[in-house]
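#structure-requests
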Amino acid sequence: MHEVSGPADVRARLEKTGYLVDDGLAVACFLALRLHRPLFCEGDAGVGKTALASALAEAMDAPLIRLQCYEGIDASQALYDWDFPRQLLHLRAAEAAGVTDADRLEGELYDRRFLVTRPLLRALETQPSVLLVDEIDRADDEFEAFLLELLSEYTITIPELGTLRAQLPPVVVLTSNRTREVHDALKRRCLYHWFDHPGFARELAIVRRRLPRVTERLAEQVTALAQALRAEDLVKPPGVAETIDWAEALDALGASEVDAELAVATLGSVLKYREDTERARGLDLAAILAARET
């Protein structure tokens, strides 16, 4: 997929995987592939940021390598580490065998076989690959700075082994739910795309593509309800992922359509906060469904 002819080609290939993109995202993905630039995807949870990386990997027939960020993550957890227990066992075995050459022992201890590769190093050494740096907004400033340096050159230096450079840079997708602002320096290194909640027609198309067994009527009703809930002042508005979950839950119950009573009974599939559930129960869901029929 690195040899794509243009945004339309990218769009077609992604749609074959079941991932529907608009023109702006197709252009951003094409430029990320052509220019070897990371793609920074920002938006609410559940709008398809992580799914984009999976779709790119499938379209490229390349492995998806995921780094899940969290508070306190550092280079040893993201890049590489040494397997200290195995090194210790090797040292004891060498001593038992009568090996006394200190230089030889040190060289053996820091052999590649004792190196534990983490996601970033695996991505640099795997060609082609898609690297997903998920929820970068959960990491701290120091990790952001480290990641910026790595993505600038796609090169790392392991003191005991030397410098390693990616022959073919991975396709990098960074996601952020905007729980905090990511520094401008990292964003400037990337192409940027804001993931908004889709309109009714596009969200319905996504649900139909992901759940072809669900009846068209049920898909339309669930999408309409999700759009209505999203318009409310909720703690966590439902994303497309929750719309799909809701439709799948109703289908599992054998429903071919939904009424207000069934919608309320299955709110746990789409809303994850008590306050949101109570607010949804206070809405006239029957009127929302009836309006969709007119």
